[in-house]
Amino acid sequence: MSQMIEPIHCTHAKNTTAHPGQIVLDAQQKCQTPKAKAADEKCLKAAQEAKEALAVVGLNQLAELQASMEEAQATMTKPKAVRPHPLPKKHGIIMRAQPAREDADEDFLASDDDSGDDGRKKKGGKNARLLSNAIVKAHKNLFTAKADSCDQPCVNKKGNSLP
């Protein structure tokens, strides 16, 4: 017959000093005397009442704060809206500093009028053309400066050549 080898049982290190029936003892309901139970309930009730009292005090403080804020808002006047003043239209992209003259405002306002006989101003006009020309020039200068700075052809991330 073959001989059966039984496994060797070793106690885990933390269980060497533990009482084997401690699990059962912990699971049992503990008995209290009526006096002890009454004392525990009295203590729990006192703790609950103290917690409720603190909550009431906090709510009273919050109510006082809200009331004071409402009073402050009721007495506060509404601030007047700030409306920007229109500025005269400036012609050209680059404005150079000129010496101040007393009649400078009158000359500027007189030359500012682009309106026709009907009193309406033209849409776009000279400023729009000057601005678009300046953008095109800056764009061309930017790409020619990039092309001149490197000996190899300029390409973007996809590999397409740039002008």
Automatic annotation (TrEMBL):
Highest taxon of source: Eukaryota
Biased composition (Basic residues): 80-90
Region Disordered, residue ranges: 71-90, 97-130
Acidic residues bias spans: 103-116
Designated name of the protein: Uncharacterized protein
Species of the source: Suillus subaureus
Biological classification of the source: Eukaryota, Fungi, Dikarya, Basidiomycota, Agaricomycotina
